[in-house]
Amino acid sequence: MRISLGFSPCPNDTFIFNGLVSGAVPLPGHSLAVSLHDVQTLNQMAFDERLDVSKLSFYAWLKVRDRYRLLSSGGALGYGCGPLVVSRRTLRREDLAGCRVVLPGELTTAHLLFRLWAPEAEQRSFVSYDQILEAIDSGEADCGVIIHESRFTYESLGFKAVVDLGAWWETLTGLPIPLGCVAAHRRLPEQTIGQLEAAIRQSIALARLEPAAALPYIRAHAQEMSEAVLEAHIDMFVNDFSLDMGEMGRRAIDTLSQRAVEAGILV
Fold first, then answer.
1. What is the reported pTM?
2. Is 111 known to be catalytic?
3. Are both 88 and 105 inside the same structural domain?
């Protein structure tokens, strides 16, 4: 059986999936057709049901959960790893209603968190995550929500943090922030989904055991970044929740869903 698999070129995803893609982690009876896309593209592809297995933003998964089953492994959840709202100038929460805000995709969890934090900020636009800082510098936006490697470099580029949405979430709920997940289309057999969960978990364990072996694949797809930023990126987004989100991870997802419904963002 040939399985289509999609994930992002970000270091945390290539670190997680290297074992599977390289064949170091077997998936007996199956072959993989792998494609790499930014997370917003993957989110949209899930709406079109184009992939059997995909990395998704939790916000997107909440909208397609009737068609895609959540896997317990491969996700991005944790503490101290949430999106940041940044600007060139000092802004307060009450200023956001009059600000133009640029975000990394309409279906990203970053967008959902921002809407929960600043529901009055209605001047929202969307670009690829790696164009957020450029959009602020060009004057297209007053502030933006950054994810991925930008959170490690924004200060050195002269930007100021308005709020850490992850820290806000943690203070509000006491739970890890659920950012991204791996989901499998419900058309796949139950046994295959179980094999995939186990294989992803094994791929993570192998990468942790032999990180140098995964580095060429990670580096081939990473945007230009220093070794220090690359390592910090992986350390921040690949953790024990990635191996198995567990009961606490599922509580965090349920809480995110509940708050989105209460805010009128999700039905």
1. 0.92
2. no
3. yes
